[in-house]
Fold this protein.
Amino acid sequence: MKKQIILLPGDGIGREIINSAKVVLNAIANRYNHEFTFHQHAIGGNAIDEYGVPLPEDTINACNNADAILLGAVGGPKWDSVDPSIRPEKGLLGIRKELGLFANLRPVKGFKALLHASPLKQEIIEGSDILIIRELTGGLYFGQPSERRENGTAVVDTLSYTREEMERIVEKAFESARIRKKHLTSVDKANVLESSRMWREVVEEKAKEFPDVTVEHLLVDAAAMKLITNPTQFDVIVTENLFGDILSDEASVLTGSLGMLPSASVRSDGVGLYEPVHGSAPDIAGKGIANPLGMILSAALMLRHSFGLDEEASEMEKAVNKCLEQGYHTGDLNIQGGKKVGTEEMTKVVLENLTAKSISR
Ligand code: NAD
Ligand code: IPM
Ligand code: MN
């Protein structure tokens, strides 16, 4: 299989971990006789430095012509005081919107070897396996332009959705639940927000087309609590943009670290952008200690969702699992003992486990 992959390293640790995904993909390509070609483009703060904007035309064009996109992370203190209209994060929001990537899939499934790395009790997280489906191109992130009013003493951000935007993400969630444990939890704030009341209507309506899927509605505040007190009650969670952003960082605690979580941002035809859930981690950037596993697992999601390469994706995931079972971990995981390594060494161990498997076949 021949595929063109665009790499958008971005900023901070994004630049350090993108290479981990690339070398692991190259190893997979060698082993299964695929041809992956990679082209790198600018996004975020580094694009501001080079082109004056966080999402250059050239990057948009390259992404439009690619088979899939891998993104590291954007942002950092260096650009915190730039004009809000050209912040690094605008580049990320821009490419999601430009490509119509309305569904952000964030699987949260802990590796057995990391059960004890979570601050939560092992018996609480054991057996949890959640897919958070976050609406990605609507809501507060994309309302009417935010405004300061009354001489800067008042401010407005708008939360807006069309029914159609709700319908397509809710449908995606039902379809996902159907091929998992057939349980969907829709998270909203219907006791306060009109948008949430419409969201509930859409979910109830769609539910009629999926009688095999059980549906539960939860208010977001209670959902946040239940996610860490009774995570095994969840299968698929569907929610709007901002709630999904917050709940997924919270859910990462189940896995031991935010650095472990991958994500896929997709549209209906399978085109996708794959990125870890975490950000550019300015506090550890440049130290070579970032956890590359969320990035590597995002590349595995790319193989599965955009290229239909299930076996290859599983091999990557198994190689990651093996490293963790061998005791390798980066410093973000709270593990006593074991083998604490940096980004490059962790990547090397993943590669070794991939290769070792191919020899033993
Ligand atoms: P962050 O996710 O970058 O970091 C939160 C904490 O988790 C930090 O302590 C960091 O060191 C740690 N962490 C995150 N990923 C890690 C990894 N792979 N390995 C080890 N430790 C890891 O969130 P933040 O500090 O709030 O945001 C920093 C910048 O990143 C901001 O500019 C924000 O807008 C941006 N951001 C970008 C994305 C993205 O590009 N997808 C996502 C989230 C935040
Ligand atoms: C994420 C990030 C982004 C978001 C930021 C950087 C705009 O937090 O991908 O989770 O809020 O979507
Ligand atoms: Mn986030």
Notes: The first strand starts at residue 2 and ends at 10. The mean pLDDT is 97. The pocket of manganese (II) ion (ligand 3) is lined by residues 245, 249 (CB under 6 Å). Residues 304 and 319 are 16 Å apart (CA to CA).
